[in-house]
């Protein structure tokens, strides 16, 4: 063989290897997983609520038109860090260690992205990571400091030597830029998995300047149970601190620093939370912010609102600010979809849109999450998987955030590890409600008490029709002894607890609790009527109790 033919043979084998790699990249789909922070399904127009129709999300809806909308998608523990730990490990909170907001993640657990890397995927996470460990299993990461900031946020990552750098701009836009830049500069011979995690629309709902006031002319309808009196329930629903009218703060949440009471330490603390964001702004950003909020606040002070008029003002401000933040999120989704379309990637990419948990938009009078009641247990979940999922379909099967890792592993052709209890959604995406042998119930467990919003510990099961919840544990500061990290000086859990103690957050003291609630979601979708212990419910109670006991036993749950 002469040297010319050796060269052409070598060239041919290079071409063949590159082709084989490309084929491999094409065989296994790319994954774009978009997760917002606290995005309520009630605020996505594809879900059809009256609220969302007044503030539509055309780009998220575009995704729903292409794929499957899940109407019964749930989290296992309705709080950011635990939810992210479920995503990464495919395990329940007591298995991966992340029960509360701060400490916990067991870094010896395998993160699904590590397995994807081994299977030849290129992996990335941008935006809110939030867990106490460095991102593990990523070729590229560019993540916020802790919760992240709305304005001129700090990021650190593989491209900053892991040092924090401040970037000028609005968070949702910047995080989207980094996500698209990762796709643009990736190695195209490999499939990729991108986790795009926004900070928005987390408290305290800072909208991009161009969207400030965009809903000022819209009067959003209050949920019918805004004035819930919790009459049929146990004490947990009454002792929480997540009421829109009572617990939202004038400075931090409603952005009315004019109401600052300098003699009240709690008020100063919430002023700091507002100023934290304002102080980050450039002079131009700050004056644009003030040009909107200060005249609005002047009008409020002049109006001297009282009673239900004031309640309605608070509710409208909450929803208007929140929805204005969503406008940027929806814009971000549009940019991602357009990018994938223009670059010929749509057909071989699974795109997921979800949130780290649900959120109360005034239902039961609340904001925040944590409870096993529907609005925080349930998340938006929309998945487009071209060629596999029927466009515009809706699925009512029970799915949970421990299912994401098994789903992504299935796409990559990786065998699901035995210690991952979730289920791949691939058969559900293919068959919708007709999927065979699917689960009949889900298990939920919330642990983060005593802390912000004072939601009691509870676990429970939800079937397609019923929900049984068990509230348990000591009350107030007595409960600190039951938490692994709140007793340990130097931990974030300890710092939060001490900070809240110093502003009298734990008074008056909550009682110890140990009781159940039962809801029939078919006849009582708003969970207003606890039927636990009512005549006629004996049989269903027994069934649900048996189901709950089964979870506790098979999953080796160690507290309840
Ligand atoms: C912060 C918020 C709380 C919120 C938690 C958890 N307070 O502590 O309102 O419940 O985060 O949110 S704030 O004063 O800092 O805004 S989560 O999305 O990270 O779980
Ligand atoms: Ca969250």
Task: Please describe the topology of this protein.
Layout: H1 3-27, E1 30-36, H2 50-53, H3 58-66, E2 68-70, E3 73-74, H4 80-89, H5 93-96, H6 112-118, E4 122-127, E5 140-144, E6 154-157, E7 165-166, H7 171-185, E8 192-197, H8 236-239, H9 265-278, H10 283-303, H11 307-342, E9 349-355, H12 374-377, E10 381-384, E11 393-395, E12 399-400, H13 404-411, H14 426-431, E13 441-446, E14 458-463, E15 466-473, H15 492-502, E16 513-520, H16 538-554
Parallel strand pairs: 1-8, 1-9, 2-11, 3-12, 4-5, 4-8
Antiparallel strand pairs: 2-10, 5-6, 6-7, 9-10, 13-14, 14-15, 15-16
Helix pairs in contact: 3-11, 6-13, 7-11
The structure holds 2-deoxy-6-O-sulfo-2-(sulfoamino)-alpha-D-glucopyranose and calcium ion.
Calcium ion binds next to loops.
Q: Would you mind describing this structure in some detail?
A:
- The N and C termini lie far apart (76 Å).
- β14 (458-463) and β15 (466-473) form a beta hairpin.
- A ten-stranded mixed beta sheet has the order 7-6-5-4-8-1-9-10-2-11, with helices on both faces. Strands 13-14-15-16 form a four-stranded antiparallel beta sheet, covered by helices on one side.
- The chain has one domain: Alkaline Phosphatase, subunit A (3-Layer(aba) Sandwich).
- α3 crosses α11 (307-342), α6 (112-118) runs parallel beside α13 and α7 (171-185) packs parallel to α11 (307-342).
- It is globular and about 65 Å long.
- It has helices at 3-27, 50-53, 58-66, 80-89, 93-96, 112-118, 171-185, 236-239, 265-278, 283-303, 307-342, 374-377, 404-411, 426-431, 492-502, 538-554, and strands at 30-36, 68-70, 73-74, 122-127, 140-144, 154-157, 165-166, 192-197, 349-355, 381-384, 393-395, 399-400, 441-446, 458-463, 466-473, 513-520.
- The chain is built from 16 helices and 16 strands.
- It has 560 residues and is of the alpha/beta class.
- The structure holds 2-deoxy-6-O-sulfo-2-(sulfoamino)-alpha-D-glucopyranose and calcium ion.
């Amino acid at each position: 063989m002469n040297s010319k033919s050796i060269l052409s043979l070598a060239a041919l084998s290079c071409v063949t290897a590159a082709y084989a790699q490309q084929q491999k990249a094409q065989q296994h789909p790319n994954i774009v997983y978009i997760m917002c922070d606290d995005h309520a399904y009630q605020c996505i127009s594809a879900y059809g609520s009256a609220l969302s129709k007044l503030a539509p999300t055309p780009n998220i809806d575009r995704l729903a038109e292409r794929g499957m909308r899940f109407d019964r998608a749930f989290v296992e523990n309705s709080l950011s860090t635990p939810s992210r730990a479920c995503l990464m490990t495919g395990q329940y909170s007591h298995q991966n260690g992340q029960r509360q907001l701060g400490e916990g993640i067991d870094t010896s657990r395998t993160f699904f992205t590590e397995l994807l890397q081994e299977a030849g995927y290129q992996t990335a996470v941008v935006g809110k990571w939030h867990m106490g460990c460095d991102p593990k299993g990523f070729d590229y990461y560019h993540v916020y400091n802790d919760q992240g900031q709305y304005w001129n946020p700090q990021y650190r990552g593989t491209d900053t030597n892991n040092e924090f750098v401040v970037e000028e701009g609005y968070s949702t836009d910047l995080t989207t830029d980094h996500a698209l830049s990762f796709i643009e500069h990736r190695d195209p011979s490999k499939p990729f998995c991108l986790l795009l995690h926004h900070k928005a629309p987390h408290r305290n709902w800072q909208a991009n300047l161009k969207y400030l006031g965009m809903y000022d002319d819209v009067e959003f309808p209050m949920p019918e149970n805004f004035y819930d009196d919790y009459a049929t329930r146990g004490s947990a629903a009454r002792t929480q601190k997540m009421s829109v009218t009572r617990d939202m703060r004038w400075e931090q949440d409603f952005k009315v620093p004019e109401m600052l009471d300098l003699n009240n330490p709690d008020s100063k603390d919430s002023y700091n939370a507002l100023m934290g964001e304002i102080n980050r702004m450039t002079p131009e950003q700050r004056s644009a912010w003030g040009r909107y909020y200060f005249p609005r606040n002047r009008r409020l002070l002049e109006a001297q609102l009282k009673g239900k008029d004031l309640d309605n003002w608070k509710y409208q401000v909450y929803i208007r600010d929140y929805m204005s933040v969503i406008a940027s999120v929806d814009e971000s989704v549009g940019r991602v979809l357009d990018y994938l379309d223009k670059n010929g990637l749509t057909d071989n990419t699974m795109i997921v849109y979800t949130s780290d948990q649900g959120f109360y938009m005034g239902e039961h009078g609340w904001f925040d999450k944590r409870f096993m009641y529907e609005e925080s247990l349930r998340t938006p979940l929309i998945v487009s998987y071209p060629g596999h999922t029927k466009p515009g379909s809706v699925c009512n099967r029970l799915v949970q955030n421990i299912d994401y890792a098994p789903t992504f592993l299935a796409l990559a052709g990786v065998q699901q590890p035995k210690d991952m209890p979730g289920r791949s959604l691939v058969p559900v995406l293919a068959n919708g409600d007709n999927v065979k042998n699917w689960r009949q119930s889900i298990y939920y467990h919330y642990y983060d008490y005593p802390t912000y919003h004072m939601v009691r510990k509870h676990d429970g099961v939800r079937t397609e029709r019923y929900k049984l919840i068990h509230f348990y544990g000591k009350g107030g500061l007595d409960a600190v002894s039951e938490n692994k990290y709140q007793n340990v000086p130097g931990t974030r859990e300890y710092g939060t607890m001490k900070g809240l103690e110093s502003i009298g957050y734990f008074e008056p003291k909550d009682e110890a609790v140990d009781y159940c609630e039962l809801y029939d979601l078919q006849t009582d979708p708003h969970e207003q009527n606890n039927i636990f212990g009512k005549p006629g419910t004996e049989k269903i109670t027994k069934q649900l109790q048996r189901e709950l006991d089964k979870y506790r036993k098979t999953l080796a749950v160690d507290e309840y």
